[in-house]
Amino acid sequence: MKLDFYNSRQEHYCFLLFEELFTGVDETLPRKARFCFRPLLKRLSLRQTEFDWLMLSMTEIISNLVKHPAIKPTFIRVSIYASSKNKIMLDVSDNSTPFYEFRIKKRISMEAVENKKLNETGRGLALIAKSYPDHAYLNADEAQDGLNHFTIWYPERGNLEEVFEHAEIANKTMPSKAPSTQKKIFIVDDDKTVRLMLEHILSPNYHVYSYGRARDALQEFDIVKPDMVISDLLMPGMGGGELRKALSQKKGGDLTPFVFLSGNKDAATIDYINQLGIDDYLTKPIDKDQIMTVIERLLLRSSQVIDDIQGRVSSNITETLKPSLPKKIGNWRTAVRTMSLSTGGGDFLFHKPVKQEDKDLVVIADVMGHGLEAKFFSYAYAGYIRSVFYGSDVNYNPSELLEAFSKMINKDPVLESTIITSQAFCLENDGTFLCASAAHPKPLIFNQQEEAVIELNVTGPLAGLMGNTKYKSHEYSLSIGDRLIFFTDGFFETLRPGGLEDLKSFLEGLMIKSKELKLDEAIEMIWQSYLSNIRPNQRKDDVTLVLIEYNGKDQ
Questions:
Q1: Cα angle for residues 232, 235, 237 (degrees, 5° grid)
Q2: Cystine design at 436: which of 126, 456, 471, 545 (Cβ 3.0–4.6 Å)?
Q3: Of 147, 172, 197, which residue sits at a domain end?
Q4: Are residues 391 and 457 in the same domain?
């Protein structure tokens, strides 16, 4: 979305460059936001240090909202404004519990940094304060829209605040509190009357983006990623034919349905249109029933074609990445169950024995996303793990392993824009267990003697968020018969209402019932119970469950 507002008193423009509403607030959201806004901010011609600090500040604000409010937000909205005076304003709004003691918390954060108490939480406020002195926090009770607002002005507020207030009054397209599921359609026509008529016809059922110039539509194609383009054939400057050719060179452009509009019905025009490889051609004046039929047909066919391509290719990738572990690892026994979607993000497991140190390293990871692209990222990430495992003589402990992954992901422009949660753990033959986490669900231990499931407080940031991210290895000691439980987030996301809150009790009852069973029999019992509790039509992610039992020496 881009809106222009002119303020005659200040004699410059304020642009709402971009605005995004994020729901499903969890630990992965800071990285999702970075991925969403990174291409936009790159276009602002900022120096690399300015770009890095702005991205970091946005990440820190969102991270605080994810972790600290008493009542977590159900959505977070990020807006970026700029003015013709080269000033930028970042505004993060949310509906969580207001941060009433903002000034006190910021002072404590500043003192922690100055005293080098780097292990304390809340350092993000100090980083923002030092980098952007001109910032403010407005709680929901004070804001007109009833939301909390954390706002940063760069390089300084100047007159942008007044222009922003002017823009807010004029802006009648504030996002709703629920994400839109409507298909997005580009309308490109230099005739304003045609555009308005099409907007009137399509707006009740589709999210319509209207452009009077083909070049404007071309520039925003990568940002909006429309599901269809409807374009006039003859326009000043870039015509519809040139637009079609230009879009075919863009990622996804060839698969995006394209419909031409034209008042010209002669044979030469129709031959030219057919050579461009478009999906349909409609003549003016536009018939409402006809255009609605064409749109519905092409969107359905496009979905079927993409599903078919993804299904053919992803089956091989899915089989290659199917999570598995050896049945026996040193003095430990393992069992794995997994369920993979035909398309979407991928789960995987990787194992390496370190014989000279009498231990084994294992990584469980979840590449977020949907569609064939996420499967390819899974494959690429597996390649990174292999290169770190086998391409170095260093025997990493879990924290060092995740730090190495994080550095490699941060430097790679492809994987840097991918959301990956992972957990590395070390199994030693004396029953010692070390674990480090990069935003992955916390593992559990089933204590055989006490018949209790214990959640392990193993946490850490997403890999690749910063080039020098540090992780901590947590050490535990298991007794013979104790069992470790690992899973990807698809495991609890697909449970019936209660989800994560009921996961521990769900597993505890099953672990007690199955404690006398062999490990393979125990995991099968848990898996079948899980399958019977899956919410209908809620399978949106791969699911992996791992049980590991300590057997003691020579068991």
A1: 140
A2: 471
A3: 172
A4: yes
d(C-alpha 210, C-alpha 186), whole Å: 6
- Which phi and psi (to 5°) does residue 541 adopt? -150, 155
Q: In this structure, which amino acid lies at residue 242?
A: E
Cα–Cα distance, 115 to 109 (Å, whole number)? 10
Give dist(CA 456, CA 441) in Å, integer.
10
Q: How many CB atoms lie within 10 A of CB 88?
A: 19
pLDDT at 501 over 70: no
CB hemisphere CA count around 134 (13 angstroms):
13
- Judge if the upstream peptide bond of residue 155 is cis by omega within 30 degrees of 0: yes
Of 146, 172, 198, which one is at a domain's C-terminal end? 172
Please report, as a single letter, which amino acid is at residue 222. Answer: D
Distance CA 194, CA 288 (A): 12
Contact between 375 and 317 (Cβ < 8 Å)? yes
Q: Is residue 8 part of a domain?
A: no
DSSP single-letter state for residue 452:
E
Type and span of the H or E element at 275: helix 267-275
Asked if the structure places residue 555 within a domain, the reply is no
SS3 content of the chain, % helix, strand, coil (to 5): 40, 25, 35
Cβ pair 31, 66 in contact under 8 A: no
Helix ranges (H only) for 142-266 are: 160-170, 192-202, 214-224, 240-248
- Say if CB 25 and CB 86 are below 8 A apart: no
Question: Could you write out the three-class secondary structure of 470-501?
Answer: CCCCEEEECCCCCEEEEECCHHHHCECCCHHH
Q: Is the pLDDT of residue 321 over 70?
A: no
Identity of residue 133: P
* pLDDT tens-digit readout, 434-447: 999 998 888 999 99
Tokens of 31: 């990285």
pTM, 2 dp: 0.51
Q: What are phi and psi of 470, to 5 degrees?
A: -110, 145
| Backbone angles phi and psi of 347, in degrees to 5 | -105, 150
- Count of structural domains within the chain: 3
Using CA atoms, how far residue 459 sits from 145, 473, 542, in Å, is 35, 10, 21
The CATH code of the domain that includes 270 is: 3.40.50.2300
Report the C-alpha dihedral over residues 375, 377, 379, 380, rounded to 10 degrees.
Answer: 170
Task: Identify which of 186-190, 410-414, 462-466, 534-538 has the greatest average pLDDT.
Answer: 186-190
Count the Cβ atoms, other than its own, within 10 Å of residue 296.
12
For 129-168, give the DSSP string.
HHH-SSEEEE-TTTSTTSSEEEEEEES--TTHHHHHHHHH
Work out the burial of residue 248: count CB atoms within 10 Å of its CB; fewer than 13 is exposed, 13-18 middle, 19 or more buried.
Answer: middle
CA dihedral 493, 494, 497, 503 (to 10 degrees): -60
